[in-house]
Amino acid sequence: MVLKSLKYFFVGLMIFTFFSCSQEEEGILVNDLREFKIAVKSATPGTVITMANGVWENVELRLKGIGEEGNPIKLQAETPGKVIISGQSNLAFSGEYIEISGLVFKNGYTPTSEVISFKTSKEELANNSRVTNCVIDNFTNPERFDGDTWIALYGKNNRFDHNTMIGKGNRGVTLAVKMQTEESRENNHVIEFNYFGPRQILGSNGGETLRVGTSHYSRMYSNTIIRSNYFDRVNGEHEIISNKACGNEFRDNVFFECQGTLTMRHGHHTLVENNYFLGNRKPNTGGIRIINENQTVKKNYLFGLTGHRFRGALVIMNGVPNSPINRYNQVVDSHMDNNMVINSDYIQLCAGSDEERSAVPVGSTFKNNLILGNTNLEPFTIYDDVSGIEFSGNVMNSDAKLPFQQGFEQVSLDLTKNANSLLVPSQELIDKIEFGEVNLPISKADVGADYYAKDGTERTFNTGTTIPVLPGEDTILEAITNSSSGDILELENGGEYLMTKYAFVNHPISIVVPAGEKAKLLSEKQSFFKIENGGALHFKNVLFDGAESPDQAGNNVISTSKYSMNQNYSLIIEGCEVKDLDKNHSFDFLKSYKHTFADSINIINTTMTNVTGAVMTLDMEVEDLGIYNVENVKIVGSTFNGVLGAIANVYRGGTDESTFGPIMTVSDVEINNSGKGKRNKVGAVLRFHGVQKLKVDNVRVRDSKGIDLFLTNGEPITKISNITFINSTGLTTNDEPYEAVNIVSNLK
Ligand code: CA
After folding, report:
1. Residue 134 to residue 227: CA distance in whole angstroms
2. CA 147 to ligand 1 center in whole angstroms
3. For position 715, what pLDDT does the model report?
4. Beta bridge partner(s), residue 663
5. What percent of the chain has pLDDT over 70?
6. What is the Å distance from ligand 1's center to 242 Cα?
7. Which of 215, 226, 559, 693 fits as disulfide partner to 663, beta carbons 3.0 to 4.6 Å?
8. How far is the CA of 137 from the centre of ligand 1 (A)?
9. Ligand 1 center to 460 CA (angstroms)
């Protein structure tokens, strides 16, 4: 441990010294794009171009040059971290031996499809070049589904190291290794010591953090090494890493609370070794998934992973016989050995087995794995014939259920934290599987740009100050204007608050009455609150009353921005009352717009009465592309009376399998006299279309429309129990299987 720390110290010292040296090379100081272009034109081996500190706005930097080994052309910041590239900007370079360092991209986005590109045209690629100590922070297109790639590697022998990437909010891979032409294959790139910081849930395919290759070139070799990177809460979609080429190595990386997996989607001969997946029991955290041939997954440590289906801790897929290049190659001669799986819930073999994916794994092994824990005592799911996988030397705890006897032994469960704070079994067992030292190969401090904070952008409620707000006209608006992220606006017990203007919400705000009688909120505008990009709302113990709303169709209490939002929002309604949203027709509680996305919407212990619209409409993505509007919905302990539209209308169309959500819980809910408005096109009080995980329990529906369930792709988990329909439509479903108990219908 001490030795290891010393080692890091010296590595740190070397990095420090390196940058200290580069500082001393003043080079040609350029102050604007014109001077930059002149300097680039005459660059020869050894030329150092230094960008002056300050904000460089709307600059597309193009650097073509030929440096030499040991004598590169350098582009650097006058002071690392003090050159801010903003607005409509990007950087592209090509040639030989080019080294770029110290630049920060923020407050803008690229007008092209790449922010940092290792090419200046289709034919002009960068080789033997390096990008280091740079930052891309929230450099995100405001159009959520206008896709781009932050870093695109082309050419050969390039190194991308010690960079920080945080907060990509729009569609597109954070870092991609491209292989379109011969000149970019067998590239030997090295991607190391980078910090991949928090990335929000995209709510669609296309949110991968790292991709190597594409299906089209996936049977060619990339030979890229991805090592010693720290992936911190990258949650874009279910593939954190999508490997789609041959000959790549993933070693010594840490995946901290990431929702998703390292997926060997295409390509053969991949090595996945000594990676640490720390799920810490967070939802949807996954591990490693094998597809294709000659894959090796060994000595990985997987802790606290809760992901199921394709997102399990360890997954081996079934393939498609003679698979087309973009489907699923059969698993052949692949090895999943010597891994340590602790307190993780799912291991799936022959996953995805169906009529199309009928080719079972062959010539493969599952050996010497430790699978220990008490979070799920039956972690294995075996979907098909596993006779093509050899099992031996695996260990499970004695109270766990073995998938079969052959190749497994059982021990008593005894886990303790080791000196490195990781939960481990006895040394004897660790030695038995030849795992070696159990320790994180890198820490957060070892990675990323050395001058930039790695705290990400977690936006949460109740982290700011409490601001008392007096009853009256527009006092809430004033308080919101003067508030900061996480502040709590404390309303007066029983007070009345009227708003004559829209309340625009740009950061998380709580509006609460701590105890006693609810405060009453009214608005003279079409919406009470508009959640703009970056906004989030939490209400507690307030009464929303539609009495002062304008006499026009289509009012609402809360709406999202009308425009695309590249930051997810969330909404909590807790212990509230909603009444008389009945000025004209179609008065909704929550109105969402296209290309907006909620991480969570919770309605808890709330009563809503007399509403001419819907409680929540989350069905704006109608193109069936697997895009949707909300990840988690909870409606708990609440009562709805006389809602003409739907209580919840959630729609996720398409057959794409790349997302976890939508995830919904409806429990302890009463619905009376609802859903029967002539404008309720969905014809149900609860409509779940394409919901991936659904739990409906203890719901009483009286004199109302029913529940409409439409199960789509994947293996949605659907549990419906204790539902009573009284004089109501009942439960209608398409004919996919689901789990239902105690549904009582047709009561009068
Ligand atoms: Ca994907």
Report:
1. 18
2. 13
3. 75
4. 632, 693
5. 95
6. 7
7. 693
8. 22
9. 27
Distance (angstroms) between ligand 1 centre and the Cα of 209 equals 10
Average pLDDT, the chain: 94
Distance, in Å, from the CA atom of 680 to the CA atom of 642, rounded to the nearest integer, reads: 13
- Tell me if 307 sits within 8 A of 262, measured CB to CB: no
At 560, which helix (H) or strand (E)? strand 556-560
CB 60 within 8 A of CB 90: yes
287 contacts 259 by C-beta, under 8 angstroms: no
Looking at residue 25, its pLDDT comes to 73
Largest Cα–Cα separation, the chain = 87
Burial readout 191-227 (b: 16 or more C-beta within 10 A, e: otherwise)? bbbbbbbbbbbbbbbbbbbbbbbbbebbbbbbbbbbb
User: What is the value of pTM for the model shown?
Assistant: 0.91
Q: For residue range 66-94, what is the model confidence (pLDDT) as tens digits?
A: 999 999 999 999 999 999 999 999 999 99
CA distance 251 to 275: 6
* Confidence band of 656 (pLDDT split at 50, 70, 90): confident
Ligand 1 mean position to 240 CA, how many Å?
A: 8
3-state DSSP helix/strand/coil % of the chain, to nearest 5: 10, 45, 50
583 CA to middle of ligand 1, Å?
44
- Reported confidence tier of residue 741, pLDDT bands at 50, 70, 90: confident
Distance CA 360, CA 577 (A): 55
pLDDT of residue 16: 44
Position 515, amino acid:
A
Instruction: Report CA(367)–ligand 1 centroid distance (Å).
Output: 29
**Ligand 1 centroid – CA 164 distance (Å):** 22
**What's the CA-to-centroid distance between 182 and ligand 1, angstroms?**
25
Q: Is the pLDDT score of 603 beyond 50? A: yes
* Residue written as token pair 């304008």: 550
Which of 638, 667, 640, 665 lies closest to 650 in space, CA to CA?
Answer: 665
Rounded to 5 degrees, what are φ and ψ at 631? -90, -55
Torsion of CA 134, 135, 140, 146, to 10 degrees: 30
Q: Is the pLDDT of residue 17 over 50?
A: no
